Amino acid sequence: MEGSWKREGARDLISLGGIPFFLLVLVRVYLLNIPEYFNQFVFSGAVVLILFFIFKSNLYSGLGLIVLVFTSLFYSEIPFFIFGSIAYLFAIVSLIYLKYDVRKVFLGILAGIVGVGVGYVFA
Asked: In whole angstroms, how far apart are CA 73 and each of 9, 13, 64, 103?
C-alpha cells in the first residue's frame, strides 16, 4: 500500500507526454489562431510518431519534450520554463521508476529533439 501513491504519482506525471494530453494542448494551441505555433506542434508530433514506429522509442518522453519546449518558447517566462523542466525531468524519472525500457525512453527524448527541430524549422 505504501508504494501505491508513488506509483500513482509516477503514472500521473508520465501522462504529461501522453497522446490525450498532447491532443488537448494541440486543440488549445489551435484555438490561439497562430498557424505557425500550431504547425510546430503538428510537424513535431508527426515526426515523433514516425520515429516511434521506426525505432520503437518511448512516446511519452518524446511528446512531453515537444510540449515543454514549445509552450516554454510561447510563454517566454523563466519560471514557467523551470517548472516545466522539473515536471519533465520527474516524468522521465517516473518512466524509469515504472520500469519502462531506459533505452526506449532515451530514444524517445532523441525523437523529441529531432521533432522539435523539424517543427521549429518547417513551421
From this structure: 27, 21, 14, 28
* CA gap 36, 119 in Å, rounded: 9
Quote the strand ranges of the chain, DSSP E. Answer: none
Three-state DSSP state, 1: coil
Q: At 123, is the secondary structure helix, strand, or coil?
A: coil
In angstroms, the CA 123 to CA 110 distance is: 20
| Eight-state DSSP code of residue 18 | S
Q: Nearest 5 degrees, angle CA 17-CA 95-CA 111?
A: 55
> Quick one: which of 35, 95, 36 has its CA closest to 65?
95
Predicted model pTM: 0.94
Evaluate if residue 60 carries a pLDDT over 90: yes
